[in-house]
Amino acid sequence: MYLALRELRHHPVRSLLLGAVVTLIAFMVFMLTGLTRGLAHDNAALLLGTPARHFVTTHDAEGVFTRSFLTPADVDAVRQAAGPTPATPVAQTFVSFSRGDRQLSGVLLGVAPGRFMAPAATQGRALTAATPDAVVDESLREDGVQLGDTLTLKPGGDTVRVIGFTRGARLNHQPVLYVTLDRWQALNPRSRGAVNAVAVQGDLPRPLPAGLGLHTRAETLQVLPGYQEEQGSLTMIQVFLVAVAAFVMAAFFYVITLQKTPQFGLLKAIGARTRTLAGSLVTQMLLLTAGAVTAAALLTLAAAQLLPGSLPFTLTAPTVLAASGLLLAVAALSSLLSLRAIARVDPLIAIGTPV
């Protein structure tokens, strides 16, 4: 620790430059992590925040709501299998609608009012069994939608009035419009009473009839159209970014270690052990990385305040701590190359080199 702090104090410019490079790398990791989490939340906020633990769809639909059509008899069979466990049907369809001259799109979701899949209104009124109106995601405010507005569904021309806003109701990067199941059936007469899935709040005590499949919330999330592909691409970018960070930090510290070969040789000649010098180098690297990661985290939080509200960006404290721990681990691993160089320093040869 003493040697590491002394080294940092005696070379402030070099320490600042190296810290700046690590700060920029950590900033890129944090921003990309925030965008990845933001896109995941924007794509599947409805499923991420739902209290449902399982969803029942037809077996051949494999958990994809839009491929599943459950008849009223199927819904009754699921309820019998669920027994005392709460289970409620859900119907979904994609819709285009207009507010005045503005053309918009969203997900029309039919739910049973008062059940656990019904939205909690953050403004306005909640759904009731008799209302033909809708509670919509609050992101529609950015498109100018207000309480009391009438939305015209395309192409049929049916209308729903906005009676409330709710939070975290987005699916496939689109806002959700909640209506009652009866209203949803009236707006989708071709469904002939069918729904897409039954949400179950716990485990099923009895088996399902043949032709129906039970899927966990995580399984349903993975088969959400486009979700896995989108997250896979962004995760690969994160992996490459961390790998580049490890390479850059290893190269920087290795070059600095080579420049200090004469000093290491002199210290070894007067009795300093290799373990002491290696510990000093690792401590120096971890101190620099910890300071740089802290600066990058503060910089990211400040930058997040300047991002437009329409840009999906989610970065929580646990995510920042996890990414910071990963970068510290990468810094420690990237020091292995420099440790090897220190171990191979021969005092007799090194002190012969001009310091």
From TrEMBL:
Q: InterPro entries this protein is in?
A: ABC-4/HrtB_transporter (IPR051125), ABC3_permease_C (IPR003838), MacB_PCD (IPR025857)
User: Subcellular location, in the record's words?
Assistant: Cell membrane
Provide the topology term for how it sits in the membrane. Answer: Multi-pass membrane protein
What Pfam families has UniProt attached to this entry?
A: FtsX, MacB_PCD
- Ranges for domain ABC3 transporter permease C-terminal come to 238-347
Superkingdom of this protein's organism? Bacteria
Q: Which UniProt keywords apply?
A: Cell membrane, Membrane, Transmembrane, Transmembrane helix, Transport
State which residue ranges cross the membrane: 16-35, 236-256, 277-303, 315-339
**Where does it mainly reside?**
membrane
Q: Which residues form the MacB-like periplasmic core domain?
A: 19-200
Query: What GO cellular component entries does it have?
Result: plasma membrane
Q: Which PANTHER family match?
A: ABC TRANSPORTER, MEMBRANE PROTEIN, HEMIN TRANSPORT SYSTEM PERMEASE PROTEIN HRTB-RELATED
What protein does this entry describe?
Answer: ABC transporter permease
Give the organism's phylogenetic lineage. Bacteria, Thermotogati, Deinococcota, Deinococci, Deinococcales
